[in-house]
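Methods — Computational structure assignment.
A single polypeptide chain was analysed. Its primary sequence is given first, followed by the predicted tertiary structure written as structure tokens.
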Amino acid sequence: MMPSLHKSLVRFWPALVAALLTLFPLLQNQRDFRVLFYFEDEWDLLSLWDQRGFGPWAGQVFAENFVPLFKTLWGGSILFFGGSYFALILLLWLNHALNAALLCRIVQRLGCSGSVALLAAAGFGLSPLHYESLAWSVQWSAVLAFTFALFGLLAIVPDSSGELAAPRWKQITIACTCSLASALCFSRGILTGPALALVMLLSGAQAERWVYRLAKAVLVLLPSLAVSLVIAIVSSGNHHHLRDTLLPATNFALHYFGESPLRTSFSDTSVSDGAALALTLVHLALAGLAWKLATPRLRPLVIALLAFEIGNAVLLGVGRYHTGIPSAGCSRYQYTAIACMLPLAAILVQRLLVFVPQRWGNVLAAAAVAGLIWHAAIHWPPIMHNWQTWRGAELRAALSQPNYPANDHFTRLPWMTNERARELVARFSLH
């Protein structure tokens, strides 16, 4: 085998395996995933699309989201696949598998071995906490936005074995593009720009002047700032009355940041304010220890991952505090929480494995991956069996009954009658 090919296989096999493992829950529970159907926000999006036309609809603010890129991809997929909901779910899972592979590469960039990187990526990819993120097509917006964040980080973070060097203009262009694309896919995608800007600001060649680093960071930050301005001015939401909601928003953010995923991975019950504060301190301590153990050239990446999650907590606090503290640990919020914490945990695991012979370290990592597969095989089926009933099976049954009361709301949207839902089914060939 050619040396270059062998080197590439050694470098990329963990990411490939992670991507394939990630698809296991979809394959195991495909019958339940095939029953899923359009739900709540998706009906609203379809109705607005039908009323206004594709172009105006794609550029329209939706709640606190200005997501023309996501709408274009989501709506285009509906047209391309003839209204198939399972096709949307399949695209969502393929994107998730890509994210697992990219996260694996991130962990490798942090200096972790292939086996440890695979373990972290498998923990992210197989987690049953993603059931809402991966079984509701509108959540593709969040998954896709995070893809651009990972691509941007990989473009500007040096390899752990490479020399510290200033990002090239090509890398800056990629980072700016990812910053804009992420923000145009999901409201909290505006955090990608600041995370990438932090890396730009804190890394670079030692001889590079601070003003040049600042200029690069500003360039990467500008797309996020522009989209943030549009959202702040045009969209509705809690951000218009922050002064009156600062305390509950802060408390919600504290619970999210502390509990996700330290509590949500083991319990369905929210905790007290004091416990949330304690978990927050544990989260910060873990990040601090990971920063200490990381090589100096890679510490900006650790800071960026932590900053991304802190920003996520702040935006969730502002936007969702009114839903109540128990919802701070909602499954749809766990996607980035898990993805941002596992690389930090991987650094600690890698350091602990120093005290174990390499062969035994690989065996332990393989055993842990097998445990994650077993955990997924046990927990995904009951979750999906319950989920598909009210996220697809009931609505499909109602749509097939011609005598179902026309004025009821089986889409669960109070402003959409069953008659209107049937019109949309016919208009877009939904199935």
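Note: The two ends are 48 Å apart (CA to CA).
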